[in-house]
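Work package 3, deliverable 3.1, input record:
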Amino acid sequence: MLSIAWKDLLILFKDRNSLVGAFLLPIVFIIVFLGVSGLSGGGGGESADPEKVPLAVVDNDGRDAAATLRANLEARAGLAITVYPEAEAMAKLEAQEVTHVLVIPAGFTADLAAGNVTTTLVLKTNTLDRGRSEAVLMAVEGVTRNMSLERQIVASLEALARMQAANPSFDPSTSAELAIPIAQRQFQESQGRPLVSVTQAQPASLGQKENVEISGVQIGVPGFAVLFIFLTAQITARSIHDEKKTGTFRRLLAAPVGKWPMLVGKLIPNFVVVLLQAVFLFATGMFVLPLIGLDSLGLGNDPAALVLLVLATALCCTCLGILIAAIARTEAQIGGIAGLVLWVLAFLGGSFIPLFLINESMATIGQVTPHFWAVTGFYDLLTRGLGMASIVDSLAALLGFSAVFFIVGAWRFEFD
Amino acid sequence: MPHILEADKLVKKYGDLAAVDGISFDVEEGEVFGLLGPNGAGKTTTISMLTGVLEPTSGTARIGGHDILTEPKAVKQINGLVPQDLALYPTLSARTNLQFFGRIYGLRGKALSERVEDVLRVVALTERANDPIEKYSGGMKRRINIAAGLVHQPRLLFLDEPTVGVDPQSRNHIFESVLQLNRDRGMSIIYTSHYMEEVELLCNRVAIVDQGRIIAMDTIRNLIGMLGGGVIQIGLERVDDEMLAAISALPAVTGASRVAPPAPATAPEEGPAVLAPPGAPEPTLVKIESKRSQDALVQVIGCLNERDVAFTSIEIFEPNLESVFLHLTGKKLRE
Ligand SMILES: Nc1ncnc2c1ncn2[C@@H]1O[C@H](COP(=O)(O)OP(=O)(O)OP(=O)(O)O)[C@@H](O)[C@H]1O
Ligand SMILES: [Mg+2]
């Protein structure tokens, strides 16, 4: 059994494609998705927005940059914007008629144009639904980050133009070489010191004093980790399919190895890969993302619960692997259909965008996916900083899925 | 001689198709037994049932005295399987492959590495053992494929068309290894092929399989004997009726007759008397039938020497398994 597992791991680690798929791709995804466009550009917003999240806006600026911000919030972040005068907005917030109010300060347009002052937007929240607040905050941050970046790049181009005007002998052909490093510097600067920052405030009446800083990383990393973890469920099916194709499966069957040890031996590598993946992704979230200007991933307050959740997720994914191996017979079924199903499940389960950002019915559908429970569990631990008690339902659901997958998979599995 | 294998009415059905339709045969310890048959005859299916890869629809077999259905573990330790397809992990080295296949038979540590080195020697690939299989030539892959079935020292080795797509050099090497394993290590071997030359060369006894059934089973000599003897065609510088009669009268010869000359375009056949037109001493072909070509040949040459007649060509047509198969089924083995 262990020989089979060990051999499969050896094969797996010689297979560049699956390594890239399991380890590198998720990182690239997270960086692209979070680093550049924030939550807004990631595709979730476009694909489903029948119920946009409402956001009240108090526009104390009233000039063009504020208007652009509002338009972007609506178009790119998928928020439903209503503008109120400040007093009315605060009253509605107090009455919980609206849950989020974004205050655009006076002079926002001017400050942004000046480019050297950081403007602070204030997001006021009056709801206990932390998830929803985080999502709105992320959306606003994503949009403002883009605006800062745009503004800063424009500024650097203007600076270039000024250099050229001041120095007529300046060779335009070198300008691209100059422009790129300048743009890059601006980009890094904007990551480190955005022109627009967002702070979150809650009325004291809400009583929830803890002010955990929530970042896109906290939401993005668990979601993507779960997506890519479950994608590895194809490993078992693929490896069994390869063995059947080359005929080595006959050799295994002809050897004095029982069927169960053989099946378990084929599953262990999947389990191991998931554990490695989880460690790798969380480590990247903690140590690598900060290096490129993103926030660091916090691991929450309950390491034991986190380990349990990772194990349960790995088990669930592995059992899903047998099910796929039992049902998908051809290469196309494994790579294509199962792959597609895994992506769709991940989407439904909220790996791409937190379900609370979409709508109720989606969230309900999502609950039939193991992804939902895994993602929810990771949010509870990593993002909300909750403990073991909060993930009991996730653990139970994951174990339940594991049992169903295993039983159906083993029942349908054909050895010859 | 004890039987290492006794197959008893094995049947495998795929829906309506009986891929194997009641096959029974015995293999003696130390024997090289051939399963000869055309594509789709059921050879691989038979082997798969005997090695525990497939469950028989009905029937059973005993291997080394153990029933394949009730004592699969014991049977599997005795069996070695070399599948028809290259059943190896292409990205792993030959040595890693062999170590793995030894491990799944329970070999560990020093015993395992000794066995691996031994089988590498048998197939003469020790030097390349650390290269990944995918870098091997076709013939080398075949040899490792065989080695992988040998690591656990099986008493009964199943070789399923081990020479398909192999260059002559590797092929000879495989033949030698097979004979050596049989002779030096007393390994019993079941060898399937649709190349009758291979089976004739390697096997003591052969079962000819067609459409899931054994249609004939015997030693090669007896199978061929079914057809009667062989034919010698001999080209002579001259021939006459007296000489033909003398040849026919030789004890090992059952009949002799003239064969029409090969290029009769200008000289149409004019009766048996005149064969070689004067002035054109064309070689004349005589067909000699015999029970045993070798004995007949010795006697014919003696007869020719007495008369001082030289021969210009000799061709011997031994009846073979191909012709046996043709005789039994009216079909050719391959095509
Ligand atoms: N899994 C299967 N499902 C349905 N039919 C099968 C299956 N495996 C084999 N067969 C059929 O059983 C018959 C015997 O196949 P088998 O592979 O035993 O032939 P073979 O003698 O080994 O032929 P070859 O010389 O081509 O290897 C064939 O007609 C084949 O189509
Ligand atoms: Mg075959």
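Chain A touches chain B at residues 3-4, 7, 10-11, 14-15, 246-257, 416 (CB under 8 Å).
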